[in-house]
Amino acid sequence: MDFAVSTPDGRLEDRRKAPTPTRDLNAFLATLTDLCAPYPGVPLHIAIAGICDTQTGFVRAANIPCIGNTPLAHEIGARSGRTVLVANDADCFALAESQFGAGRGHNNVFGVILGTGVGGGLVINQKMVSGLGGLAGEWGHGPFVVGPGGQTEGIPAFACGCGQTGCIDTIGGARGLERLHHWSTGKTADSHVILDAWQNGAPDVARTMDIFLHYLSSALAMTVNITGSSIIPVGGGLSSVPRLIAALDQAVRGHILAQTDRPLVVPALFTRDAGLIGASCLSEA
User: What's the pTM value of the predicted model, to 2 decimals?
Assistant: First the structure.
């Protein structure tokens, strides 16, 4: 786990790392308590790659099974004697970009993660939005590519880890792009190879990318129309491909109701520390 102390202007100090106990809850709590021990009484804010239910306080994280169905903030607070806030890392990413990054100066910011999969977080008026079950900004889920009666009209509808079929997450992100390319061409290739081939004009990749950009931009356009977001910072591994972000931006702006000539989908400013910075911006309100 990564630890840092945040200054009011978003800088990180006293950076430290510690191995993350994933199977032993007591060891996990002890590690966090030890990391923040030099700062008695200072609030502890945590970003995790999981679901944080704001109504119950319980969290679930696939990569840290020992904290599953645990009121994590309460447990750490009782042990360390400090205020503890916990939030999803994609939400913290959006908050970091809103406060100090590409979304600074915008009221409504929708932060997008295009990494292994698809994620997102919503910030309105500098406040992170957390909805039913602690979920908000999950634009990658919902049966976008499945028609009535489960018909797909030639477009792939893959099973999703959320239990549904045809989610954007199944064809977005790095693994989704690879899955989509195999369906389209019968060829197996790494996402970096696919994107390099696309940028070099390889014809067999063009259809893959046409489908990829069409469905991602359609889902993002719907999100913009609903949330009124005026900027969409993109993080994750795929955000490092400028042509991809530019193509996605152009496609999204072609689908939304509020037309604009200014870039809407842009690379995020924070590529590594967004979780830490965003967590530091969390508030109890």
Answer: 0.91
